[in-house]
Design brief:
The protein is of the alpha/beta class. It has 2 domains: 125 residues, NAD(P)-binding Rossmann-like Domain (Rossmann fold), CATH 3.40.50; 186 residues, Dihydrodipicolinate Reductase, domain 2 (2-Layer Sandwich), CATH 3.30.360. Helix content is 34%, strand content 22%. It has 10 helices and 15 strands. A 9-stranded mixed beta sheet has the order 14-13-12-11-7-10-9-8-15. Strands 3-2-1-4-5-6 form a 6-stranded parallel beta sheet, sandwiched between helices. Strand 5, helix 4 and strand 6 form a beta-alpha-beta unit. Helix 1 crosses helix 9 and helix 8 crosses helix 10. The longest helix is centred in the last third of the chain and has 20 residues. The radius of gyration is 20 Å and the shape is globular. It starts with 6 loop residues before the first strand and ends with a strand. Bound molecules: NADPH dihydro-nicotinamide-adenine-dinucleotide phosphate. NADPH dihydro-nicotinamide-adenine-dinucleotide phosphate binds next to helix 1.
Length: 346
Amino acid sequence: IYTGKKLNIALCGLGNYAEALAYGLENSQYCRLAGIVTGHPAKAEAWQKQYAIPEKNIYNYQDFDNIKNNADIDLVYVVLPNGLHKEFVLRAAKAGKHVITEKPMATSVADCDAMIAACKRAGVQLAVGYRLHYEPYHLELKRLGQEKVFGEVRYIEAALGYKTYDEAKALAGVDFNDQQEWRLNKSLSGGGPLMDLGIYCIQSSRYVLGKEPVAVTAQFSKARSAKLFAQVEESITWQMEFPGGAVCNAASSYGYNIDRFFASADEGTFELSPGLSYGPFAGKTSNGILHFEDINQQATQLDAIGKLILENTPLPAHITGEEGRKDIRIIEAIYRAANTGQRIEL
Ligand code: NDP
């Protein structure tokens, strides 16, 4: 059990995922919830009470820059809508704080570049909240693929989707500026389920193969509600070609439920279903059932990152801004492929 100084984290944006992170922080050895940044005073009050957060560690989006004078905050964890990640990563870096930003890192490669440069300039570490990099089933997928336990992987299927929006909502009329509906607002989300969920399919196929895709093709499905999905796609399927010929066929959706990963290699197969969500996961290989402990993904991720930052050790490549940028570059190519019907080379 670690008893040294903990990394003091401020959560920025107190929505659904910030709650999961707060629970993770309660179960973390190396990190603690020290501060909050929120646009809603009532939330500030409720969180202050629940987590015993001192008044001086509470910020809103206007006075956030004053955090530079607060030695009791080491790192800002940005859990805002995707389109706001860049602004708050830049502001946190300028305040001299380390940053973790949620996935997707940003809504364009240009924004990722600006974020990486700002953190470098400020001498702070930048991580992307890829929770599955520390999850035991995914560490096993990575081992099975990269160590070629069943030989060369030739084909992958990966899909993540949730039936998130219903027709009734569409008929009631959706307000794209509603805080609840930012995922449908292109400037706040950067895109639909590909940005939000498809990123896990891209990530997992990349780390199972240990390679970068060389070309993509993609198709939008027709949205059931043109009104609800006026700005972003409801569902998308896409294919990624990897060096050596391996292919990943992937899908993500706000219109149907799916959560699985499957790989076919020369001498066997391995798969998870559920496999990309918060779990608990279930999996098997052609040799039998896979079984690992169901862990708190957020606490595990925070501990791995927090320990390194406390030790002043540079974060490993697979969790940095450069890694986040790679996924956004692929996402941009997938959208280009779906919009043009062309095969896009990377
Ligand atoms: P929510 O809508 O639940 O929360 C977003 C929060 O951001 C709001 O509660 C609000 O907090 C703040 N906010 C500030 N400005 C706006 C605005 N204009 N519109 C809406 N919200 C605003 O979203 P999630 O928590 O689900 O997602 C947040 C981020 O986390 C996204 O980038 C998402 O991709 C990522 N995420 C990652 C997951 C993972 O497994 N790694 C899982 C889920 C989400 P306040 O009221 O305090 O100001």
